[in-house]
Amino acid sequence: MKKELYGKLEALQDLLVDFSTGKGGDDNEYRKLRAELLDISFLHEKLPAFLSSNRTLTQFWPYIKGMFPTYEQRRQYLWENFKVPLAFVETFSTNPAEITMSEKLVQLNQSYINFEWDKALKRKGDDPEGAITSSRSLIETVCKHILDELKIEYDETFELPKLYKLTASQLKLAPEQHNEQIFKQILGGCQAVVEGLGALRNKLSDSHGKKISTVKPTARHATLAVNLAGTMTSFLLETYESQHFTL
To answer: How far apart are the C-alpha atoms of 23 and 112, rounded to whole Å?
Structure first.
């Protein structure tokens, strides 16, 4: 999936560059690639905005011609506009939980939450410490978003475990709010995951100074943190959505 998406993005970029620099272009191929890429929900907001309003190459021509008079300017403009989606797909994982979370955040349409999630995904391979920090920030940001939507006051200095407990209580996800042992156990596990991410962030992330002897986190630690954060935030958002219908 990742390789296929990257190939389609490159093909569309190259087609537009050729067309914009006097080398012609296949309108059917443009329509096909454009439709396929715009139909991918978690990629949609990363694509150049001009794709939405220019359905054919005939429509695209006056747009690019009016924007830039020279071939070089057009070339640079198109390369710049495709940088974000290409980089996103290049670092994107086909992990089902990550795809689900990305789609959920596109639907939510809150740029500051999307930013934290994208940052966590991009960092997990080559910046494990940063990815762990971003994972913790993601849950904190989503908790604050839900509390703000519910108009529940909270102290900005709350640590993540306290912030999560307040959010969980409002969503009826606190273990003590249930009588069934299995639900108490599962929801207690969710609470433990969040507390663990907070502790992991304090221990292994880049948020604090470290002793020389401190063990460095690896990509697998970062992947665990990112996937746990993605699962928990998706669960929180879906619970809020199911209880309050709209986000």
So the answer is: 40
DSSP sequence for 230-245: HHHHHHHHHHHHHHHS
Amino acid, res. 239: T
The tokens of 53 are what? Answer: 């309003």
CA 109 to chain centre: 11
Query: Per residue in 35-50, pLDDT tens?
Result: 999 987 668 778 999 9
The residue whose two tokens read 């747009």 is: 63
pTM (predicted TM-score)? 0.57
Q: What is the 3-state composition of the chain as percent helix, strand, coil, each rounded to the nearest 5? A: 75, 0, 25
Rounded Cα distance between 132 and 128, Å, is 6
Q: Which amino acid is at 219?
A: A
Instruction: Provide the 8-state DSSP code for 214.
Output: P
For 115-136, give one letter per residue: b (16+ CB within 10 A) or e.
ebbbbbbbbbeebbbbbbbbbb
Tokens 């042992």 locate to: 181
In whole angstroms, what is the distance from residue 210 CA to residue 203 CA? 9
Write the DSSP assignment of 9-22 as a string of letters. HHHHHHHHHHHHTT
Nearest of 215, 205, 239, 189 to residue 120 by alpha carbon: 205
For 179-230, what is each residue's pLDDT tens digit?
A: 999 999 999 999 999 998 888 766 655 454 545 445 677 888 888 888 888 8
